[in-house]
Amino acid sequence: MTHRFSSHRRHRRQRIAALFGAALVLLSGALCAQAPAAITDLLSTGEYVLNIDGKDVKADFFHSERTATFLIESAALPAPVVLVVRTQAAETANPAKITRMASGELMLQPDYRTQGLGEFKIDGEDVLFDVQGKHVRVKPRPPLLGPQPFATVRGFKPEYERNMKAYKPDEATIAALKLLQAPVRVRVFFGSWCPHCTEFMPNIMRVEDELKGSKIVIEYYGLPPGSAMRDEPEAKRVGVTGVPTAIVYMAGREIGRIAGEGWRAPEVALKDVISSAASSVP
Amino acid sequence: MSEAGPSRALRLVGRFAALVLGGVLVFAAAAKALDPQAFAEQIHAEGLDRFASASRMALLALALEAGLGLALMLGVRRLRVLLPASALVAFFVFLTARTYWRSTHGGAVGSSCGCFGNLVERSPAEALWTDLLLLVPPLLLAFVGRGDQRQGGRGVGWRLGVAALGAVLVAGFAWRAPGLPLDDLATRLKPGVQASALCAGTGADRVCLGGVLPDAQNGRQLVVLADLDAAFAADVDRLNAYVQAGHGPTLAVLTAASPDDERKFYWRFGPTFKIATAPPGLLRPLYRRLPRSFLLEGGVVRQTWSGLPPLDRLAQAGPGMAPGLQTTP
Known about the structure:
The complex is a heterodimer of chains A (282) and B (329). By secondary structure, chain A is of the alpha+beta class. Helix content of chain A is 34%, strand content 33%. Chain A folds into two domains: 3-140, no CATH class; 146-280, 3-Layer(aba) Sandwich (Glutaredoxin), CATH 3.40.30.10. Chain A has helices at 2-32, 150-156, 158-166, 171-178, 195-210, 228-231, 233-238, 266-280; strands at residues 37-45, 48-52, 55-57, 60-64, 69-73, 81-84, 89-93, 98-100, 106-108, 113-119, 121-123, 126-131, 134-140, 146-148, 184-190, 216-222, 245-250, 253-258. In chain B, 50% of the residues lie in helices and 11% in strands. In chain B, helix 1 runs antiparallel to helix 5 (124-142), helix 2 (36-45) crosses helix 3 (54-73) and helix 4 runs antiparallel to helix 5. Chain B has two domains: 4-180, no CATH class; 185-317, Glutaredoxin, CATH 3.40.30.10.
């Protein structure tokens, strides 16, 4: 009798232990499962324009590199639109689920989706989808061409402003350039379509900002993409074959160029060009 | 009365010149045989593949160059060797001179492969002068002190046989080379090389690997050289998964694709890794076949791989959440 009782208790304990173990496994599984992630790195981009029913409209584009996702905000759209490139999905987002962070980035909560718009279509370089009967086309932004004032270039793409802020020019070099007495003209040939220019041209834009009031004048000249760049008359005349390229002039004469590695620290490259020109003067 | 032959000194000069010229031709053939595809691309770019495919022309040219070089090294200085060798040298010099002329008249300025394949970086001017100095004087001197080659041709038969065999072996090696693990030997990208030392172009147009990879000098970076084509598209999910895991070195794909093609690829396949572009002249000497990958540490190439890197192994480098992703409960 005692034996049967103790055996029954043992079985009961084993069942409780098994249940407890199973609960633990389920709980840990639930905790460890990858919860839907918020997209926190949506940065404004000026690479695209929005066209609705054949008409370009004002729109703000945000891009998350880490998730290959775009968020488009426009008064012409009934709601913000999210393009998930990996699944080719277009969907509308709940504006309340979009958070503007102090860093300037946007955060999209995981439960942002309000309506699926189906798969977007790709037409050459354009992306097409429909929202409430409107035909929407996302197009690459046409390039800036010809001579452009600093303010126009600066405002053309948010990437320029962002990369300008991120660049820290060498203070001693900037101070030395400010002391320069002879006028220097720098012509920057760039492509607003060119990723390297987006990366490196803001460095010289920041240098220009720092050199305000100095004898150094910086000008910007936009070139078209592809083979048209080499055939552009001004590029041909001055012999620019790649962008970005800056030509440095003193007294109307070319004294050197900034290209390639020089863009990492254009103020240093500029000072080197000026110094070598000065040292070559007899 | 017997006719006096060339002096011993002249014969020695001629033999030595033939040895030098032959050595240069054999070295050049061997360098190109390591990466016959690049040589075929060069043949195609020069428009020399009108009568046969560029790959076949490449194998034929390598066999000819190696065969003539070996014959000269073995001391065969008969006209049937020297005249084709002269034609070959003239052809090389013509090609490098034409590239140099184009570069000085508004053509694309870049490195010239010249007759040494992709192993050596040379500007068009350097390629022209190197070819002129290394090939022309020994060729001219090889004609010196030949005497009567018909009488002094002991063992010419077996020497030509060895040269022919060598030519066949070089062509055979070139045929099999793409499948052999020779990337580090055949390209400029190898462990220990500085990213800032891998460059193309001259003067203001000079561009280096360190310049096209924004984070080349900082920390560890995994770089995949790739064409943005359908074959590479099949690898995007694996690379995306590596990036999403957030472990291991940061990943960048380096391509010679145009910004338009890069954008099209982006919208079709949704890569979540950084894609950087570089001029073809900079990238071509870094691979034999794409994709090829390497690990940069503090601006120095630490390791290379044919194809994609071992992503699983690299992902074990340490835990961490990829920036831009925040898990919510």
